[in-house]
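Title: [Solved] ABC-2 type transport system ATP-binding protein 3D structure

Original question kept below for reference.
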Amino acid sequence: MPVIELDNVSRAFTVSTRTGFRRTRREVRAVDGLSFTVEPGEVVGYIGPNGAGKSTTIKMLTGILVPTRGSIRVAGVDPSRNRTRLARRIGVVFGQRTTLWWDLPLKDSFAVLQKMYDVPPARHAENLATFVDLLDLGDLLDVPVRQLSLGQRMRGDIAAALLHDPEIVYLDEPTIGLDIVSKARLREFLGQVNRDRGTTVILTTHDLDDIEALSTRVMVIDHGHQVYDGTLPGLRASQNAPRTLVVDLATTQPPIQVEGAEVTKTEGPRQWLTFPATTSAAPLVAQIAANYPLTDLTVQEPTIESIIAKLYSTTPAHQ
Ligand SMILES: Nc1ncnc2c1ncn2[C@@H]1O[C@H](COP(=O)(O)OP(=O)(O)OP(=O)(O)O)[C@@H](O)[C@H]1O
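Solution (posted by the thread starter after getting help):
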């Protein structure tokens, strides 16, 4: 049974703008007719350009915002009518803000949360020990939150969001501003929590490496509409973005002639050829090997960045 269900959900805002002495009111549909379900244990990457409606969706899922139209159920309840009850079953992390108490040492914030969520002391101690170990928080527990670096604070925030064993966790830009090592560590931790505890994860991010590392499913939203829902390989295939053959020849040559592929770049004896995603690379490789002094060769898949950019540019709202 789905743990999250949205049925034709919309949320509009009235925005007033002023030009000279005239004030005009305009309706912005941040989310417009959105329907989807999420099964327990899924890790869904929820992506879209700025202003697409991602935060509005997450706010409706946590019950902070009420939809203008449509219905939402999270863990079997309507979030806006059961906000307090639902709070025990969900965890939320906003990369840009902390939910920890600024002046308290990290461990005191954790203690407040234990009381707030009424977590049995033994369970709290067990979770704390696990998270301190996995997130390497041992030396930070006595440090006031305001003295933590961004990466340290983020690890603290993620532990805080998970201490009460939520079934669902919403992560809004959890790796924003972190260095590569911290990002990798956080992704590994989140993957482990999902595997070990079956926690459902909704991940909003502009860092597509987060999605590649963690998500089994990608949902793309643009102008409040869903424009894609499926796997990452499926997203690649749907956009039919060309693949690239990187060919190393024994000697520098003019652009080589290969039927079904086109040279787009040369650099000394190396040449780059693009070919349609629907074509197999094998006959191209055979052609090159038969006609040129081939020494090495690799096939490059299109980057997700290029695929997503293509998807945004082809959605109706942009045309
Ligand atoms: N409280 C509000 N009042 C008026 N308009 C709003 C409000 N909140 C959001 N909007 C508008 O709704 C649209 C969607 O905003 P939302 O914050 O959900 O986008 P987002 O996908 O999270 O963007 P970003 O990636 O920039 O965080 C935008 O046009 C935004 O200006």
